Amino acid sequence: MRDIDKIYIDGQFVTPQATETADLHNPATEKKIGTVRLGGIEDAREAVAAAKRAFPAFSRTSKAERVDILKRLNAAVAARVSDLTDAMALEYGAPQTFTRFSIPHAASSFLTMANVLEDYEFERRIGRARVVMQPIGVAAAITPWNSNIGFITSKLATAIAAGSTIVMKPSEMSATQTQILTECLHDAGLPNGVFNIVNGLGNVVGAELSRHPDIAKVTFTGSTAVGKEILHSAADTFKRVTLELGGKGPNIILDDADLDVAIPSVLRMGFINSGQACIAGTRILVPNHLLDDVLARLKQEIETFKVGAPDDPDAMIGPMVSQKQYDRVQSYIELGTREGAGLLTGGLGRPSGLDRGWFTKPTIFTDVNNQMRIAREEIFGPVLSVIAYRDEEEAVSIANDTPYGLQAYLHGTDAARMQALADRLDCGRVVINGAPHEPLAPFGGFKQSGIGREYGVFGLEAFLEPKAIIA
Ligand code: NAD
Fold first, then answer.
1. Known active-site residue 278
2. Are 278 and 244 in contact (CB under 8 A)?
3. Which of 82, 144, 212, 414 has its CA 20 to 30 A from that of 200?
4. CATH architecture of the domain with residue range 2-245+447-470
């Protein structure tokens, strides 16, 4: 049992003024593992005040000083990869197949940003003007539970590179991971107030940060519903916003795909992070004439996606994060059947042999049409829909017929054809044949998947205001 009773303000671990607590659970066992004391509105305001005090000096630091800070942050986080991995396994249930990549990646986001910063020109001439990119002011970051460590590090790295100070409100369900990460960040020895971390409820601390007049920018990762609320609150003081929201990614198998290669890749993209991923490719689009073959192969391949607790090195899919998330996923599985979809594999209940923990069966629906709710709404669990298409035109039209537009996947052999198809998809990223993540390329969504971009120069400029000085 671990009781987390501190938040981080102005370079110190402090006890929140608010006294409410929330329970923390191990999703693989459903057992309570600790509590977190939640910050309140006053705590959020103190954190904003600290970040505001730190801003004038920090915004004038040199590029070299900030590169040095980013390198120190990288070293401090990299030094505790194994503690962070354990915490993510315990509190989130992340399988080793996910933590092996995601924790080192979280540490490296500081180095990636240091490289971006080294090459970035904060001043340029445009005609008669000297254009200066100025740090935006105090930023707020609000993050979800599905990759807590990575979201905090990437948003913090970008704020630091830009010369902004920041107040972060992570998901209250991720407090164990946040605590260890905060200890790492503290060890890096940044000036007081440059970053502040306040655990708390979204509708308390998150809402206060979204409306506080001293916050110049909100960077949010989470659901589309909460993103809309933040956008409304931010409007009163014209905060800049970056919103990374939900997705319903098309996972398109083309008629020239090598199915031996494509099918495992399709499922990896569909079940990434136990299906609790905004970027999951949850709509599998299949040419009509390949449908029977693809369904048979999906059914066979899914057997290799072992569901299990994080201590099982072979597990590819862990539990859902909470009872609420488990119930939500179950309700969508029930809905799919009610809507008339067929069940290729999976279904209601837990996988056999796992009678406790919020484990759900990896599920694939067939006979899905793109108007069904299971094809339109983000389920956020390992539940995929197979949708058949006639020709390339219809594939593009189904892929784009969604309120979302985050990440799409193409599987085929003709590179030029896939590049041309990618140009026609309305989404922020298109991944061809399971290509690895590119941390320097912009990330973000079209339509209701969000506003703005993170990562690389695009992410950095979202923390900067251009100023033209004309003589
Ligand atoms: P959520 O929207 O419920 O919560 C996200 C964060 O917002 C949490 O810290 C929460 O406390 C806070 N929050 C809740 N209500 C708030 C309010 N009124 N004002 C301010 N903050 C508030 O999302 P979640 O359930 O934690 O995460 C899952 C969602 O996140 C999914 O929809 C998923 O698609 C999305 N997501 C998007 C991306 C992306 O990069 N596009 C990445 C991961 C997750």
1. yes
2. yes
3. 82
4. 3-Layer(aba) Sandwich (3.40)
